[in-house]
């Protein structure tokens, strides 16, 4: 079982303190570069999604096409019956 240093020392996470308490205690948020990896990954993922949405909207405005929808439709067309049986069939109790 893994324990974090904060838990071993009996400290709460920064999120559990209210903003006013953080200010009184002098707790400052970590700079972006020192944040945990999962938060950095989440930020990077969000930036990628926003960028792809902007490109999608731009193409839709210019050419009247929705590339994101077309890609999703093609992806659904290539799903095999075997995959559907394994996923949907199992949950419905058919297979």
Distance between the termini: 37 Å
Q: How many DSSP E strands?
A: 0
State the major sheet: none
Low-confidence stretches: none
Roughly what percent helix? 55-70%
Oligomer: single chain
Category from helices, strands and their pairing: mainly alpha
Overall spatial form:
flat
Q: Would you kindly provide a written description of the structure presented here, covering whatever features stand out?
A:
With 95 residues, this protein is mainly alpha-helical. The protein has a domain of 31 residues. The protein contains 5 helices and no strands. It is flat.
Index terms:
95 residues, mainly alpha, flat, 5 helices, single chain
Short description, anyone?
By secondary structure, the protein is mainly α.
Topology:
Layout: H1 5-9, H2 19-25, H3 37-63, H4 67-77, H5 81-92
């Amino acid at each position: 079982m893994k324990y974090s240093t904060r838990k071993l020392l009996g400290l709460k996470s920064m999120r559990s303190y209210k903003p006013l308490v953080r200010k009184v205690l002098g707790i400052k948020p970590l700079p972006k570069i020192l944040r945990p990896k999962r938060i950095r990954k989440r930020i990077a993922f969000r930036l990628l999604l926003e960028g792809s949405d902007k490109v999608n909207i731009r193409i839709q405005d210019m050419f009247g096409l929705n590339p994101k929808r077309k890609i999703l439709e093609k992806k659904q067309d290539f799903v095999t019956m075997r995959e559907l049986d394994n996923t949907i069939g199992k949950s419905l109790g058919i297979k």
